[in-house]
Amino acid sequence: MSQYFAIIGKDDNPVYEAEFSGKLGPQGQIQGFPQDLKELNPFILHASLDIIEDLQWQPNLSLQGGAAGSGGSGGFLRSRNNTNASNCYLGKVDHFYGIIITAYLTYSGMKFVMLHGNSVSTTVQIDDNNVKSFYQDVHELYTKTILNPFYNVGDPISSASFDSRVRALARKYLGK
Amino acid sequence: MTDKLILTGMPEEQNVHSTTGYEYIIGPKQSLPNEANAPYIPSKIYSESILYKKQQVSLMSMAFLYQELISQIYKNSKTSTEFETKLSNHGSNIGFKLLDLLNLRASVPSSARSSTFLPSNASLTGGNTGETGGASTNTNTSTILTGYIDKSYESNESLSNMISQLRRRDLKIIDILQFIHGSVWSYLFGAPSNDLVKSSERENEYMIVDNEPVLTQFISGNFSCNYFMCGLIKGFLSQAGFECTVSPHPDVDEIYPNRVVYLIKFEKQVLEREALKFGA
Amino acid sequence: MSTTDKTSSSHSKSLKIIGDEIWKNKTEKINAELFAMTYGSIVSQLCQDFQRDYKKVNDQLFTMGYNIGVRLIEDFLARTAMPRCEDMVRTAEVISKCAFKIFLNISPQVSNWSPNKEAFSLIFPENPLSEFVELPMDATKDLWYSNILCGVMKGALEMVQLDCDVYFVSDVLRSEQQTEIRVKLNKVLRDEIPIGED
């Protein structure tokens, strides 16, 4: 499985982007997004931002199927009476052919969005627990980033240290 | 972990990797499978824990710094509005940071917090606080020895490892104001603010009352020095999606000669959104 | 307090006790992170104002520190009731064990004495000003992030008739081994206030 991950700022500007690819294929090729689809990734991602903004202020968010169910395919969001559940992780918010889009919101309204895809166009399965953990750890890294007095909110995060840590988290949680 | 090896040779190592971060113009870079064991790029901020260590400095140090900030801004401002805006912007910078920081910290269960919090003076040289803090004390000792933050922070003191359920993002005005009145104020000044009031006349107005403002207590005669806290409140709220303006108003009596009311006026769209999502 | 008949190590020991005691029982305190973030906001704003001319930023931080130092010394002397220091060795110990302890709750190590005992270094294993800070690439050569500390010491020492140079030698923020400030005595100013000044 491959992922395209982006942090999107308040003006829908990308603050950080990365692509993670899974194992090598049978012929030793990198299993990323198909080249023709890869160019579309930012557009697919941006198309989901409206949905995320709508979910941002939804009073009773919770994951259908529940984040607790391991190996679930990431249920769509439904309004439900669960007032304690966290509303940072939005789970699966959209899909585009075989690609699944998940999202997460920080307290400061930064959108963490990820496209989960395959080189073949079969629908991917995502593990909500792992995806949520990935987002949550990146949220902590992001918080450290904004604590730095030299970082201005909304600027691209160009730190190599940040980048290397995000990629390590992707290997830890998503590199299956 | 391999990270520790990297750290000792830090200056050279850093140069090797210095240009490999995200570049906006180029777009996303691909992680390749053969990078599986790529080391972290050493970094002070990313390897330090953001767990609250309850460290303190003298109030006088803060007061001196604040006075000097005020006098610099005053010298460089042509109008009182410019002064207020500049001072407010400094506060906003801090409000932005506190929003994610304090919400994340508030998500750590209090049981985990108390066992991992360092004693407030644990990082002093010479103090033999040794056995009390377990893993976190070890980390601390190595900080003193090397003069640099040890990498074991990374695995031991990641906040997310302690969080099972993140605190909810606040969606309602009253919820986020209560967080400011309670958690933010306690974090900054050791106690909640003295009052949180909703205006009876105007629907979009709320007030946070501080009987004895800490930062301005040593500054006499210029009430607009309270704009720093206004900026902090405004930065916190605006960044969370509650756009507003905040201004300080005196409310003094014999007991509290410095009492200040922070008047928060929310933008129209904030109230409209709330009415739409929660019913008026 | 008679100090002449004691060894220098017991000097510094008693100074440590004084500093610790005042910090613990007689000092109003505030969140160190608020302090660090406020300072961070000041430095980053200066970098913007001076268009990343970091030498100017250093100077401005030094000036701000100097202004603080000349006022801070009164507060320090009032709270510690410290008698005049007889030499730089004693002065260094007071700065480390009492002044830094009381104001920032740290005690930098005194080291690297010059042979004539008029210049020394303060080594900072920790620095509450630089919490959460990573310098931008272009600042690692010229910016002394915590330069306000040098100004504070310069101003405070001048008020007790010690004309000193105070400057950063190295800083871990620049990936250097340690954070070190050098204090070098130029001359002891005469007590008399020159005519025409007050």
UniProtKB/TrEMBL annotation, chain A:
InterPro entries (UniProt xref): Longin-like_dom_sf, Sedlin
Entry coiled-coil feature ranges: none
Gene Ontology CC: TRAPPI protein complex; TRAPPII protein complex; TRAPPIII protein complex
GO biological process, one term: endoplasmic reticulum to Golgi vesicle-mediated transport
CDD domains: TRAPPC2_sedlin (cd14825)
Record field: transmembrane: none
Protein name listed in UniProt: Trafficking protein particle complex subunit
Organism: Tetrapisispora phaffii (strain ATCC 24235 / CBS 4417 / NBRC 1672 / NRRL Y-8282 / UCD 70-5) (Yeast)
Gene field: TPHA0C04390
From TrEMBL, chain B:
Compartments where found: Endoplasmic reticulum; Golgi apparatus, cis-Golgi network
Keywords linked to the UniProt accession: Endoplasmic reticulum, ER-Golgi transport, Golgi apparatus, Transport
GO function terms (MF aspect): guanyl-nucleotide exchange factor activity
CDD domains assigned: TRAPPC5_Trs31
Cellular-component GO terms for this entry: endoplasmic reticulum; TRAPPI protein complex; TRAPPII protein complex; TRAPPIII protein complex
InterPro entries the record matches: NO_sig/Golgi_transp_ligand-bd, TRAPP-I_su5, TRAPP_component
Family matches, as Pfam families: TRAPP
Subunit note: Part of the multisubunit TRAPP (transport protein particle) complex.
Similarity comment: family membership: Belongs to the TRAPP small subunits family. BET3 subfamily.
The protein's role, per its UniProt record: Plays a key role in the late stages of endoplasmic reticulum to Golgi traffic.
Protein name: Trafficking protein particle complex subunit
Organism: Tetrapisispora phaffii (strain ATCC 24235 / CBS 4417 / NBRC 1672 / NRRL Y-8282 / UCD 70-5) (Yeast)
Organism ancestry: Eukaryota, Fungi, Dikarya, Ascomycota, Saccharomycotina
Gene name of the record: TPHA0D02800
TrEMBL record, chain C:
A molecular function (GO) term: guanyl-nucleotide exchange factor activity
SUPFAM superfamilies per UniProt: Ligand-binding domain in the NO signalling and Golgi transport
GO BP, one annotated term: macroautophagy
Main localization category: endoplasmic reticulum
GO cellular component: cis-Golgi network membrane; endoplasmic reticulum; TRAPPI protein complex; TRAPPII protein complex; TRAPPIII protein complex
Alphabetic keyword roster: Endoplasmic reticulum, ER-Golgi transport, Golgi apparatus, Transport
UniProt-annotated location(s): Endoplasmic reticulum; Golgi apparatus, cis-Golgi network
Domain of life: Eukaryota
CDD domains, per the entry: TRAPPC3_bet3
Entry's family note: Belongs to the TRAPP small subunits family. BET3 subfamily.
Name of the protein in its database record: Trafficking protein particle complex subunit BET3
Gene: TPHA0J01270
